[in-house]
């Protein structure tokens, strides 16, 4: 028997909640510890999954679990079912060392002190906790926002080195990768807000008796509130299998202190070098003082880091197929400037990649650094440009250089591409000059993960710039060795780890159907208020799909195709003497009421939705195109056909 995805996930959640009540994790941990202990004899062999399953069955854990879930015919269940349930519950590979991290609840989220308890079925703001550790990503289920939120979740983190099965205490001590916590608040209108971004050093568990420890983690705010506590989480850490011998707390604190000292010394030396480099740059010409040369940028925790450390080589596996599709994906992440309390202009805040992806929106710098990272992953020679747009507004975009010397600008907020041809200021007055189509006015510097170049040409106007980075009279470069000392992966422990992209969990067909049903309901209700009947033409609605597919393909590739077939199908579906009208619109969200309100602000759409006449037939089609991180391109097309009356 198969279930639709939404029903399957609902059933999984019910089973998960029930197993938490039974403390099934605790029982399985006991069996695992006992099995590992028994296996430590002289004739030691690796513990297999089958051994572990037999141990669970011997202790009656599976029988108890099945009875509690009201499976009466336990003995007749196929072994593959039992294996699947055990894997779902425990998910432990006995041959590898794992860290079981439990969040046992939250407290002191004082911003929500006056928040009333939500009523059953009431839509409320929620907290969701995201984790990243050594290329593994997790998320908790959303819980209602409260002063003491019910954040209770367990995460099984695998600790391993390439080629090593069971990591010992010494090798784990040298693993300085933190567990990155990102707490996101989602309000009732589905808007997300970054509450906290915290890096947890988990290695204290290496000195804990029984390889288990529990402590409170104080989460700080972000941006201008990075020194203000946001709340406290109670966290438990446990190693599986437990360490045969624990390390002393002094050894761990000494290792952490050495790592901090090494990082601080590298950062100090780079700062000394950067100051000297900046003085040399200003001596080239006085006008360089006014150019937008950005060497350091502050992240969400108020930490100043070199801008090159925000760009890494990021490969998307099979989630993205081309540089243009990568640009489309980045453009679907919403644009929002960092929030400012009170006046005073823009609050500058560049985000770590994990915080940007979890929040699903960010400023132009976040978009540009992500797009540049993806383009580098696709083997392109890509750089982030920092400069200005019209009216001197600071902006960041991406530049790629072809092997033939061609320069292409990529606008990360829209996925638009522009070919750059510089104007020759020494050309005769009547000589034809290229007309720039891009919106950029000035460029102060360009950078990627291993290069930083400042523009030292007489003018920083983009239309006059020559992007010949080997020419030292046009571009002043920083030492690649100096940049590598603080920006290369693993160079310092203060550098945030690079998270992988997550594959989408949304079912595009189910999401499209749901949103289309909601749109039909809203159109019918709107027409009812105008005393108009609503008759839907399902065939015409279906025909609109090809147009929406063509629109998304054009946004991805820049190539328009399929329009002739759509027009031909519509001509066949609309009888002689009838008029057809259609209105497509694009959104980055799936909120039906917000989308419908926006559509009605267009006179073209309102004319279709409120159409009066003889033999009026309405159609609406929704297509949700899903990308990594559940980024969505939502296309909606309203249409109507009616008999023309002179």
From TrEMBL:
SUPFAM superfamilies linked: Cysteine proteinases
Transmembrane segments: none
Compartment annotation: Cytoplasm, Cytoskeleton, Microtubule organizing center, Centrosome, Centriole
A cellular component annotation (GO) from this entry: centriole
CEP76 C2 domain ranges (all copies): 91-243
InterPro entries: CEP76 (IPR052299), CEP76-C2 (IPR028926), CEP76_C (IPR056288), CEP76_N (IPR056289), CEPT76/DRC7_peptidase-like_dom (IPR056290), Papain-like_cys_pep_sf (IPR038765)
Species classification: Eukaryota, Metazoa, Chordata, Craniata, Vertebrata
Family: Belongs to the CEP76 family.
Any one GO biological process: regulation of centriole replication
Residue span, CEP76/DRC7 peptidase-like domain: 348-478
UniProt-recorded name of the protein: Centrosomal protein of 76 kDa
Centrosomal protein of 76 kDa C-terminal domain ranges (all copies): 506-643
Function, as annotated: Centrosomal protein involved in regulation of centriole duplication. Required to limit centriole duplication to once per cell cycle by preventing centriole reduplication.
Keywords: Cytoplasm, Cytoskeleton
Domain named CEP76 N-terminal: residues: 10-69
Gene name linked to the record: CEP76
Organism, as annotated: Astatotilapia calliptera (Eastern happy)
